Amino acid sequence: MTGWKDHQLMKAIIDGDWTLVTRNSDDFRPRSGSASQAPCYVGQPLHTGLVCLNLPAGSGRANQEAYFKGALDCIENHGDIVNQILEVDPDPAHAGKVVLCIYDFP
Fold first, then answer.
1. What DSSP line would sit under 53-95, residue for residue?
2. Is residue 14 part of a domain?
3. Do the domain assignments include residue 74?
4. 67-77 confidence digits (pLDDT tens)
5. Residue 58 forms part of a structural domain
6. What angle is formed at CA 94 by the lines to CA 93 and CA 95, rounded to 5 degrees?
7. Residue 1 covered by a domain
8. Domain range for residue 16?
9. Around Cβ 100, how many Cβ atoms within 10 Å?
10. Strand order in the sheet with 84-90
11. Domains of the chain: total
12. Cis peptide before 106, with omega less than 30 degrees from 0?
């Protein structure tokens, strides 16, 4: 899927009933949280969830794994994330920790 355009990726995600995990959050989350002109999840009445790993620029593999683990732990405790978005952000008060926010969309 490397090199696919966002709309091509969305078709595969929706058709495959997949949950997208991305570092490229702006192109997928709703307009209110996105700089993109056409975020891909806008207009999707039903989706299996979106996980946004909002790592700081230049983050290495260890940071990516920590964010991903935080997301997996959240989903394990919360249950499925159908029609929800899970944002994983750096915790400004605790270096190396993450803050999790889950909200309904649409």
1. E-PPTT--HHHHHHHHHHHHHHHHHH---TTEEEEEEE-TTST
2. yes
3. yes
4. 999 999 999 99
5. yes
6. 120
7. no
8. 6-104
9. 17
10. 20-22, 50-53, 84-90, 98-104
11. 1
12. yes
